[in-house]
Write a structure and sequence with these properties.
single chain; alpha/beta; TIM Barrel; Rossmann fold; 6-stranded mixed sheet; 20 strands; 19% strand; elongated; binds NADP nicotinamide-adenine-dinucleotide phosphate
Length: 526
């Protein structure tokens, strides 16, 4: 598909640096024209290419005067949208006035107007063939429920195209992340400029990867959460977190597969590191319900590497054609690489990340002793999921005596049998202190944002531990770590494990040495 950036579009700063022509459009929603003008300046400063003036958000609207002011005073090209309530917008008035206002925007010099497919015949009739050559007509369709089949989407695009659209736009809703694949398929094969979005958190990929698949534009908000449609990222994130201007057809796709997943700092870490060495990849949050279905759907070589988190680390084992022996022994995979033959290889880097951080924490400024400082210690692991298995396995490997406490006792028992450990239920943990100088590692999500007041063990019991580690890293200092510190224990944060496990993943993703100092710097700033 040939992408044409409208020659009427004003030149953007830094355009020479762009590797693609996909535009970033900032929706402008405000009560008054004056507020809109302020937001337009902000859009320009943030690096957006154009603004979508959502006329339906205005509390009062004098079409000729307001449209003229908004076009003349906008520092960026304008797209006028006057969305009616029946298409998910705020305008509830009569249809003729709405279409007249859009016609006026066209006459007064808007660069684009958006007319809904359901209203396009009426709009075309009212135009009487007097369509401005300068203004591009976007004909749009929105589905707030689901994403239809590829065949139905193809038919929709054909109907929009036949209506006289210069640019086709459709937005659907992701019930599952695999819905996005159908939209990529339509975008990449489109013969006309196309804006194709999948709304909702599970549709995020559709908004970031437009330049890879040839989309005409994507929407980026000026402020987190102030969206005109569900799932929009900010302009700032598109530009600075996802390196949007650098993406192209050859960009390799990476991401963290989880549920929930939006808290993960992995995109921040990897994208900045990719940018620092000019590696052509993008790393995204991937909200996945069914990991096997995800890999069945996204099976091309473009989908190159994945981190894997809650609750998929065990199910990931069955998706891989080959598994590293340590990951097999642990029974959990947290890193998946697509080999050149398309098959998936799984390994576990949690083990190295956590255990080396705990060893460093124990050694502190002491000269390093021969053998592991974990040897002979009583090491209590809370949790028996992916991270719990990795840490229990690692501690045992280092010669520790391991105890596993888990909410579901049966899972603790199963893991204890595999690793050669003792099992407890979580309820028994606070009264379990056969000796002092023990090590505690929380590997559950207890205490993770937003439930930051939760903790897996009473403060009283913490006095029996000389070092406490928490795999949770949002927040960095959890309630567990704060209380451990107050009880006199050394603490090791999940951030240290996070950095440690990411070194090896980065090297496997890129084939390049991990920029260790950069990783530490990035993680120290939050
Ligand atoms: P997982 O495989 O889903 O395992 C979750 C574990 O937490 C299970 O043992 C589960 O117990 C337990 N659990 C969950 N909610 C609980 C609750 N409300 N009360 C008691 N126990 C609960 O998840 P995972 O991949 O191991 O991840 C676990 C945590 O480690 C997450 O917070 C994750 O962000 C963190 N993590 C951090 C890093 C890092 O680099 N810092 C790396 C990996 C993981 P049941 O068996 O009873 O369900």
């Amino acid at each position: 598909m040939e992408l044409v950036v409208d020659s009427g579009v004003k030149k953007m700063e830094g355009e020479a640096m762009r590797k693609n022509q996909t535009l970033i459009c900032a929706p402008i929603m405000a009560d008054s024209v004056d507020q809109m003008l302020i937001l337009m300046q902000k859009a320009k400063t943030s690096g957006a290419d154009l603004v979508e003036v959502r006329v339906d958000s205005l509390k009062s609207f004098n079409p000729r005067l307001d449209i003229d002011t908004l076009i003349k005073q906008c520092p960026l090209p304008t797209l006028f949208t006057y969305r009616p309530t029946w298409e998910g917008g705020q305008y509830a008035g009569d249809e003729m006035s709405r279409l007249d206002a859009l016609r006026l925007a066209m006459e007064l010099g808007a660069d684009y107007i958006d007319v809904e497919l359901k209203a396009i015949d009426e709009f075309n009739n009212a135009l009487h063939g007097n369509k401005s050559a300068k203004c591009k007509l976007i004909v749009s369709s929105h589905n707030y429920e689901s994403t239809p089949s590829a065949e139905d989407l193809g038919n929709l695009v054909a109907r929009i195209q036949a209506s006289g659209a210069d640019i086709v736009k459709f937005a659907t809703t992701a019930q599952d992340i695999t819905d996005v694949a159908r939209v990529f398929q339509i975008t990449v094969h489109s013969q006309v400029p196309i804006i194709a979005m999948v709304m909702g958190e599970k549709g995020l990929m559709s908004r970031i990867l437009c330049p890879k698949f040839g989309g005409y534009l994507t929407f980026g908000t000026l402020e987190m959460g102030k969206v005109s449609a569900p799932g929009q990222p900010t302009v700032e994130d598109l530009l600075n977190l996802y390196n949007f201007r650098q993406l192209g057809p050859d960009t390799k796709i990476f991401g963290i597969i989880g549920k929930p997943v939006s808290h993960s700092k992995s995109p921040l870490l990897y994208n900045e590191s990719f940018r620092s060495v000019g590696f052509n990849g993008v790393f995204m949050h991937l909200l996945v319900d069914d990991i096997a279905n995800f890999f069945r759907t996204y099976s091309s070589l473009d989908f190159a590497g994945f981190s894997c988190t809650i609750p998929h680390k065990e199910a990931a084992l069955d998706c891989c054609a080959e598994i590293d022996p340590t990951a097999k022994a642990i029974g959990a995979v947290n890193c998946i690489i697509r080999r050149p033959d398309g098959k998936l290889f799984g390994c576990n880097t949690d083990y190295i990340g956590a255990i080396s951080a705990i060893e460093e924490g124990l050694q502190g400024s002491q000269p390093s002793i021969s053998g592991s400082p974990l040897a002979g210690k009583l090491f209590v692991v809370i949790g028996a999921g992916g991270a719990g298995k990795a840490i229990a396995y690692g501690a045992k490997e280092k010669g520790a005596r391991v105890v596993i406490a888990n909410r579901t006792y049966e899972r603790a028992r199963e893991l204890a049998i595999v690793v050669g450990a003792k099992a407890l239920s979580l309820d028994e943990l606070s009264n379990f202190h056969p000796e002092n100088d023990m090590i505690l590692a929380n590997t559950t999500s207890i205490g993770m944002q937003p439930k930051v007041d939760d903790t897996p063990i009473s403060k009283e019991a913490l006095k029996h531990y000389s070092l406490v580690f928490d795999a949770v890293y949002t927040p960095k200092i959890t309630r567990l770590l704060r209380e451990a510190q107050e009880s006199g224990a050394k603490i090791v944060t999940g951030v240290e494990m996070f950095i440690g496990q990411a070194y090896e993943q980065y090297e496997r993703f890129t084939g390049l040495p991990a920029p260790k100092e950069l990783f530490k710097n990035i993680m120290s700033t939050y």
